[in-house]
Amino acid sequence: MGILQTLKLVDSIADPVYSTPNITAQYNPPVMDATISNFLYAPNVYISRAEAMAVPTVARARNLIAGTIATLPLHLYRKSTGQELGSPRWLEQPDYRQPRSVTMASTIDALFFFGVAYWEVTELYEFDGRPSAFAFVVNDRVSFNLNQNNTEVQNYLVDGVARPNFGVGSLVTFQGINDGILNHGGRTIRAALDLEKSAALAAATPVPAGVIQNSGADLPEEQITGLLNSWKLARNQRSTAYLSASLKYEPTSFSPKDMMMNEAAQFLSTQIARLCNVPAYMVSADMNNSMTYSNVMDERRQFVDMTLKPLYAAVENRLSMNDLTNSQNYVRYSVDETYLRSDALTRLAIIEKMLALNLITVEQARGMEDLTPEGDNSNGD
């Protein structure tokens, strides 16, 4: 189990309005074993984010998930009525140095790979002490001190410098529902990297390794060395080579086809799709997929429910906590209005029926389609 696998919220000692809750963590360092048997049965194999992103299937899954969620708008709502409220500045643009989509993409990326993400508090509101601006902090920069039992985080450090538990400079932690693919999928990702390395080696040396058998008289050491060098040079520069009647080349390794590299690559792509909780066809790991227009929306809804929601719910729930948002309000992504929005004809048919039943007014219908209300002069004259 990774160190971040069992992160859970605990009560903060300081005032909840001003403080970011601490987290507890079971401390189990990653296990790396040298022998094949230990590798097969070890609970984890360490792998970095950069190595994981070098696997095309992982990169595709990450870009699908983080890219989709980052483009969804966040809104503030009142709990009692469900009314949409004006979004505060920190919700529209958490970090003044970059667009909101970039900050959110980095946050989802950290949850996807590590199971936890960090924001640093950079500014506070004067009237209630809640954060008004943040900065995303890369996971590799964050460390923490544990208690004597190694079960609870006492304080966080960024670049080795201790941070306060509340106020400017403190960290807001986003805990994921799972512990991130790097903490439980290192073995599968490492296998994909090893397979790509083998394929690259096979491409660089199209002739398999082998031996040259001599059925004639033994050759002096100098001639053997010269023969091998000449053979290697000829194979690198030309597609054919010449051997005398007494010499015969015998391959000693398998070709990529014999090693079933294509089949192995397809299998690992499917495994990584499962690891990332992404449908195989979305990462081109399902060769038998046949999508049609009629089921695109159904597939999108499944993608949202099964893949995206566990990640963006972690962001929604954390931003809705009382140390960031007033307890009477909550934060939600507008998924239905954007990613799951129906085509124009379907929307108009629904609006027409709602108008006929007097469920909405014409002005509300225009608002549903983002049209300017009647009588409103968009030029401001």
Overall spatial form? elongated
Strand content: 15-25%
Total beta strands: 13
Extract low-pLDDT stretches: 1-43, 377-381
Could you say which structural class the secondary elements and strand pairing correspond to? alpha+beta
Report the average pLDDT across residues. Answer: 77
Cα-atom radius of gyration:
29 Å
Instruction: Characterize the biggest β-sheet.
Output: 3 strands, antiparallel
In total, the number of domains comes to 3
Provide the helix percentage. 25-40%
Number of helices: 12
Q: What is the element string, with H for helices and E for strands? A: EEHHHEEHHEEEEEEHHEHEHHEHH
In whole angstroms, the N-to-C terminal distance is 64 Å
In order across it, which strands form the biggest sheet?
Answer: 4-3-13
Task: Report what the structure shows.
The chain has twelve helices and 13 strands. It is α+β, with helices and mostly antiparallel strands. It has three domains: about 290 residues, no CATH class; about 45 residues; about 30 residues, no CATH class. A three-stranded antiparallel β-sheet has the order 4-3-13. α3 packs across α5. The longest helix has 24 residues. The chain is elongated, with a radius of gyration of 29 Å. About 25% of the residues are buried.
Keywords:
single chain; 381 residues; alpha+beta; 3 domains; three-stranded antiparallel beta sheet; elongated; disordered C terminus
Write the layout of secondary structure elements.
Layout (H helix, E strand, L loop, with lengths): L7 E2 L13 E2 L11 H6 L7 H5 L2 H15 L3 E5 L5 E2 L3 H4 L7 H15 L1 E9 L6 E7 L4 E5 L6 E6 L2 E2 L8 E5 L5 H4 L1 H19 L5 E5 L6 H17 L9 E5 L9 H15 L20 H24 L9 E5 L10 H13 L5 H7 L13
Antiparallel strand pairs: 1-2, 3-4, 3-13, 5-6, 5-10, 7-8, 8-9, 11-12
Helix pairs in contact: 3-5, 7-9
